[in-house]
Amino acid sequence: MKIVTPDSAHGRRRLDKRALSVLLARRLAWHQAVHDPAREPRNDSRWLPELRRWQAARLAASFQGFMQDPKRKPAAEFFLTDLYGDRDFSRRDSDIARVAGKMQRLLPQTLLETLADAIELGALSHAFDLRMAEALEHLAPRRKTLDDELYGRAYREVGLPRLRGHQVDLIVVAGYGLGHALRTRGVSTLLGVLRGPARAAGFGELQSFLERGFGAYAKLDDVGAFIADIERSEREVARRLFAEHPEPFAPLPDAHPPSGNKRKQIRDR
Description:
Blueprint: H1 17-35, H2 47-62, H3 64-67, H4 73-83, H5 90-102, H6 109-139, H7 148-158, H8 161-182, H9 187-200, H10 204-217, H11 223-242, H12 260-267
């Protein structure tokens, strides 16, 4: 089965309310489809839990440098648990889709568009996991645990380097966009005002997600530099995996933030 990302050509243009509602609905429908065992039997693969556990541990290891920086640690933890981890985001993403029509006047437009990107990131990442689980069934039908070598073989069998690149694009867009929106003036007050009504209306998971994000990003001095470091690391891991590098997950030799020009490119996306 091909992995198809709906609205993959969607740029950073501002959407009107109707277009944004349609976008959110389409991405949620895709998200639900790839998670539904009735439509996608690979959700029952015995390899899927092990794959998620292994990938979460790999990502946590690559974030160790962030964890040692008090200002970056909260944002790194938020990434691991709420944006790019192994949690089930179905409840949150359902809240996002429903909020488009009911709270669109209250939440900033940029925040809603970024949440749509977060749904796409979750759906695409899960679609890749399904293909990885299928590859592992073929490559190691009797094994029960992953290691670097087997993971790399499955990664290359799945292939699709351009879509892997798009996955990193979504990490950048969702991560920076959320950080920018949550640091916009007045958002902190708005989240406080909405806490009670949001939970009463059944949007508690989304409200908690936004509050955790606000608290995490509040301590960052430079959102662009933080996201750029993640992007650099993830693109290099993908390059090494496709190139059959003997140590694809080794830390980058240069841990310094990218240049100012690179940061500006991320801000302009």
